[in-house]
């Protein structure tokens, strides 16, 4: 059964080869969606879209720039006339301690994760409201819930916790319009965001804290995104779904 037949989806930060956005794009495409891959580099976004098969599109979009967000959404609407799903996946992290966070670190991490989620959602809301339906999926993190402890610094935890608050407030405001907004909190997932940046010791320590005993796979997160994007989750809004192998059972 194809869960997104005839639907269109925008996924930010979806060009990264081993990333959560890319895996989500692949699963959405396999379920019949037309996918717009947005990322910083146009060539990478176009290549990722082409790798999904025909009928998808790749666009350059820095989610920290409101004009670029509006322009990318306008391009998708021009081409496809509708946006059913937005996955706010673009994110960066930095392994800093409190006193190491310089103003530019704060700005970079807060802007991509939190400001970008707001701008992209703002850009999509009018079309979703007109359609009377839509699903927004925001990528938070277990770091928001437990105050880091894997890789990202306090500013990353704050940005991802901000995404949870934003998700819930937007869910409340947009529910009467038929637009659902949910968040995913991935735990430790093997992607390039941490690749080569954790020592063997650090990695072993992280794995020791995961009851399922393994790192997550990008496809583990994609499956959750598909659930939240599709009608299977029709009565879910304002939720935060943990995808962490049991590393935060609460
Ligand atoms: P990744 O580094 O593989 O992919 C992130 C993508 O975002 C890249 O393609 C990058 O180019 C893009 N990007 C960065 N800044 C951007 C900007 N300003 N505008 C548009 N795109 C931008 O990372 P990933 O592991 O796939 O992470 C995806 C999301 O999941 C992030 O929000 C991350 O914080 C979150 N997350 C990841 C993990 C994990 O363990 N991998 C855990 C929890 C949450």
What does this structure look like?
The protein starts with 7 loop residues before the first strand and ends in a 7-residue tail after the last strand. Helix 1 (20-30) links the parallel strand 1 and strand 2 (34-39). With 250 residues, it is an alpha/beta fold. It has helices spanning 20-30, 42-51, 66-80, 103-131, 142-146, 154-174, 200-208, 218-229; strands at residues 8-12, 34-39, 57-60, 85-88, 134-139, 179-186, 240-243. The longest helix has 29 residues, at 103-131. The structure holds nicotinamide-adenine-dinucleotide. Nicotinamide-adenine-dinucleotide binds at residues 12-13, 15-16, 19-21, 39-40, 61-64, 89-93, 112, 116, 139, 141, 186, 188-189, 191-193. Its EC number is 1.1.1.47. This is Glucose 1-dehydrogenase. It comes from Palleronia pontilimi.
Bound molecules: nicotinamide-adenine-dinucleotide
- Helix-strand makeup class: alpha/beta
Going by CATH, the homologous superfamily would be: NAD(P)-binding Rossmann-like Domain
**Rounded mean pLDDT score:** 97
What number of structural domains do the residues give? Answer: 1
Q: Sketch the major β-sheet.
A: 7 strands, parallel
Number of strands: 7
- CATH domain class: Alpha Beta
Overall shape: globular
Family: Belongs to the short-chain dehydrogenases/reductases (SDR) family.
Domain Ketoreductase: 7-187
InterPro entries: KR_dom, NAD(P)-bd_dom_sf, Sc_DH/Rdtase_CS, SDR_fam
GO molecular function: glucose 1-dehydrogenase [NAD(P)+] activity
């Amino acid at each position: 059964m194809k869960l997104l037949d005839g639907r269109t989806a925008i996924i930010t930060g979806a060009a990264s080869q081993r990333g959560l956005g890319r895996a989500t794009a692949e699963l959405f495409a396999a379920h019949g969606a037309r996918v717009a891959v947005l990322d910083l580099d146009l060539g990478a976004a176009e290549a990722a879209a082409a790798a999904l098969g025909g009928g998808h599109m790749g666009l350059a979009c820095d989610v920290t720039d409101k004009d670029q967000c509006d322009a990318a959404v306008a391009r998708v609407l021009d081409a496809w006339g509708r946006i059913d799903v937005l996955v706010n996946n673009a994110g960066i992290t930095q392994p800093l301690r409190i006193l190491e966070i310089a103003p530019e670190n704060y700005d970079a991490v807060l802007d991509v994760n939190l400001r970008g989620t707001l701008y992209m959602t703002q850009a999509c809301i009018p079309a979703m409201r007109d359609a009377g339906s839509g699903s927004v999926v925001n990528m938070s993190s277990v770091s928001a819930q437990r105050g880091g402890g894997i890789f990202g610094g306090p500013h990353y935890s704050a940005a991802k916790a901000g995404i949870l608050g934003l998700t819930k407030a937007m869910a409340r405001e947009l529910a009467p319009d038929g637009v659902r907004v949910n968040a995913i909190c991935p735990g430790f997932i093997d992607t390039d965001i941490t690749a080569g940046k954790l020592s063997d010791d650090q990695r072993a320590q992280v794995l020791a804290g995961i009851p399922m005993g393994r790192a997550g796979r990008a496809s583990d997160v994609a499956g959750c995104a598909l659930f939240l994007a599709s009608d299977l989750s029709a009565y879910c809004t304002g939720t935060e779904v943990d995808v962490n192998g049991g590393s935060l059972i609460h």
